[in-house]
Input
Amino acid sequence: MKYKRVREILTGLIPIAAFLLALLMGTMMIAILGINPWVAYQALYNGAFGSINAIADTIVKATPLLFVGLGICIAFRAGVLNIGGEGQLVVGALSATIICLTFPDLAGWILIIIALLVGLLSGAIWGGIAGFLKAYFNVNEILSTIMLNYIAVYGMNYLLRGPIMDPLQVKLGSFIPQTARLPQAVDLPRLIPTRLNLGIIIAIFFAILVYIFLWRTTIGFRIRMIGQNIPASRASGINVPKYMVLAFFLSGALVGLGGAIEVLGVHHRMFTDGSASGFTGSAGFNGIVAALFGQLHPLGTIPASLLLGALLTGANKMQRVVQIPSALIGALNGLIVLFVVGSEYLRRSQARRVELITEVGYNSKHKSKKEDE
Output
C-alpha cells in the first residue's frame, strides 16, 4: 500500500517535471540568443506576480482557461476529444453580446443572468452538434469540432462586419469589426480595483460542481465508465450514444459560459482580427493543456490554469524587458504543450502497465489458490 501511494505521488509529479523540462529547454533557447536566462525569467515572474495588477491579470488570463479546461475534463473522461473550445468560446461570447445589445433597458443583474445562461446554452448546442455526429454517425469528433471552430469564426466575422457592427464605426467610416460597447450595467462586478472580476469565483464554483458531478453522481460515474471501457459500458446497459452527447453538451456549455464571462467581465464588446484567437487569445487550445496539466481532474485544473495564465501574462513582460522575439515566446508555449501532452501519454502508459501487472499477479495468485485446493 505504501509503495502504491509513492507511485501515485510520483505519477502526479510527471506533469510538473514536464513543465520544468520545457522551461529548461526555453533557457537554452534564450541563452543561444545571447540573453541572460535569469533576467528573462525574473521578468516573467514579475510580469505574472510582481504587483497586485500583475496578479489580477494572471487570474483574468486563467479564467477562460479554467472554463475550457473543465469542459475538456468532462469530454475526455467520456473518452471523446473536444477540440472545439475556440468556437464554443466565440459562440458563447457572441450570443451573450447579442442579448445585451438587444435588451439594453433590462435591469443589469437580470440581463447578466440571461446573457450568461444564453452563452452557456449556445456553447452547449455547439458542442452537442459534434457529440451527436460522433454518437450516431461515428463522425470523428476532432474533425467535426475543428470544422465547427471555423464556422463559428466566419459567422462572427460576418456579424461584426455587418449586422452588429458598432454604429459609430459605420458613421465614422472606419468600419472596425467590433460591436458597440455593452451597457455598463452588465459589467461583471470587480473584486478589487483592477480587471479582476466575478468570473474567477464562478469558474471555481463550477470546478467544484464538475468534481461533484463526475465523482459523486450516477450520471458522472456512467460518463467516466464510458471513457474507460465502452464495450463493458454497453454490456452493463449504459446508453453509450446518449452519454457521449451529454458529455459534449456539458463540455460545450462550460466553454460557452467562459466565453460569455470573458465578454461581460473583461472586453465588454465583441471584436475580431479575422481569427478566433483575436478574441479568445487561443484559450480554447491552451485550456486543453490546462486540463492535461491538471491530470483531467476539475480541481487539479484550477492551479494548472493559474500556472498557464501566469506564463502567458509574464511572457508579455519578458518580451518587453529583454526584447525576446515574439516567435520565441510562441516556441516556449509550444514546448510546454509538447512536454505536458507527452507527459500525459507517459502517465497513461504507466497506469496501463500497472493495471496489467496487477491483473497478472491477481490471476497467478488465484490460479495457485485453485491448484492448492
